[in-house]
Automatic annotation (TrEMBL), chain A:
Keyword Oxidoreductase: yes
Record keywords: FAD, Flavoprotein, NADP, Oxidoreductase
Cofactor note: Binds 1 FAD per subunit.
PANTHER family for the chain: THIOREDOXIN REDUCTASE 1-RELATED-RELATED (PTHR48105)
Pfam assignment, any one: Pyr_redox_2
Protein name per UniProt: Ferredoxin--NADP reductase
Keyword field contains Ribosomal protein: no
From TrEMBL, chain B:
Family per record: Belongs to the adrenodoxin/putidaredoxin family.
Organism: Hufsiella ginkgonis
One of the GO biological process terms: P450-containing electron transport chain
Cofactor: [2Fe-2S] cluster
Matches recorded under InterPro entries: 2Fe-2S_ferredoxin-like_sf, 2Fe-2S_ferredoxin-type, Adrenodoxin-like, Beta-grasp_dom_sf
Protein name: 2Fe-2S iron-sulfur cluster binding domain-containing protein
Keywords: 2Fe-2S, Iron, Iron-sulfur, Metal-binding
The UniProt record lists the keyword Metal-binding: yes
CDD domains recorded: fer2
Residues annotated as transmembrane: none
Pfam family, one: Fer2
Signal peptide (UniProt feature, chain positions): none
Occurrences of domain 2Fe-2S ferredoxin-type (ranges): 1-105
Amino acid sequence: MITTDIGIIGAGPVGLFAVFEAGLLKMRCHLIDALPQVGGQLSEIYPQKPIYDIPGYPAINAQNLVEKLMEQISPFKPGFTLGERAETVEKQPDGSYIIRTDDDTEVHCQVIVIAGGLGCFEPRKPDITNLAEFEGKGVAYMVKNPALFRNKRVVLAGGGDSALDWTLFLSEIASEVTLVHRGDTFRGSPDSSEKVAELARGGRINLLLQSTVMSIDGNGHLQQVTVKGRDGTDQQLDTDYLIPLFGLSPKLGPIAGWGVGIDRSAIQVNTFDYATDTERIYAIGDINTYPGKLKLILCGFHEAALMAQSAFRYVYPDQKLSFKYTTVYGVNTF
Amino acid sequence: MITLYVRNETGGREPVEVPTDISLSLMEVLKGYDYPIMATCGGMALCATCHIRVVQGGEQLPPPGDAELDMLDTLPDAGPDSRLACQVRVHENLDGMELCILGNEY
């Protein structure tokens, strides 16, 4: 088990800067992020975009800001668990918490800071009434273990790059592959869409354009999907698997079940110290909400500073906090 | 000032008056009027929580760009009249447009 003072969920800019503010008060941090690298949205979504509202930088490239933050916090030697999603938090008898990830990493901390930004990206689901009933029983939203589909019949739905790529991949191992797409053309990579068209012409896959999966059926396991075609008629397809690939949508994810107050997919905090309604759990950055909230990196930085002042009393209950300027005292590292 | 119409759950049309001298997206305007739009990603065409359908009057709209089309392409319930409100700038050409909000369920 990893032991630290503050467990930070989310290694985006605000989670990273929280390490600095905590470090000034001699609190150690460990960060957990579902993404395989630090930086959150900045690294994952817009690494090359310039940001214009970071004080002191008239313009700074997003990835560059992440690198500067990493440099700024390195004296405080934060720990990182990347590529793992924080699943559960468990309160201990002494008030501290254990955070557990989907890979069973455990982080014991006195305080939890949720800096989860947009949340986790989860698969977007089509509107099929009994879809949930067959999840894990023939309906899958990603291909985790390709061997599962060997010599099976697979229906894929979607028209983006991932639908094209998985169609090409599965056509090699599945016994029968059908791709159902709402449009009549693909916007994905021209190379992949040409390959898919070629497989369809050669009869290696079934390509159903201007078609939609309307309903699914089975007896304990998926057996059949009904597809509405371009002429408006329904056709039944026998299948072992349905893989809807409609992209990813940011969701609060497991955090929604941790008992902290939530309003419209954001965590409610007070503006005194950005604490949630649960003692020792704070939320900072884009994931929180309060009257007047602005989703700005610089606001997240401010929230991190106030959070750290407040969290101090849980980490050092016997010490009195005295506020010190870095210009007077410097940055005393660990 | 232009007037937009938002179709509500009962099929009624709610007029929304919007000044055009502000540089805002349609998502920001609808959010400002307290319509239930989460806009999780803040306007980067990433989350589709501001997915709308243009019921009528969309002829004057500039066509969607690549980022918007890529996202619309992945949505299970997108149609030919679908747009992401965050990618539509408020402009005179929106006057009289009627829309309904679809993105809530994501």
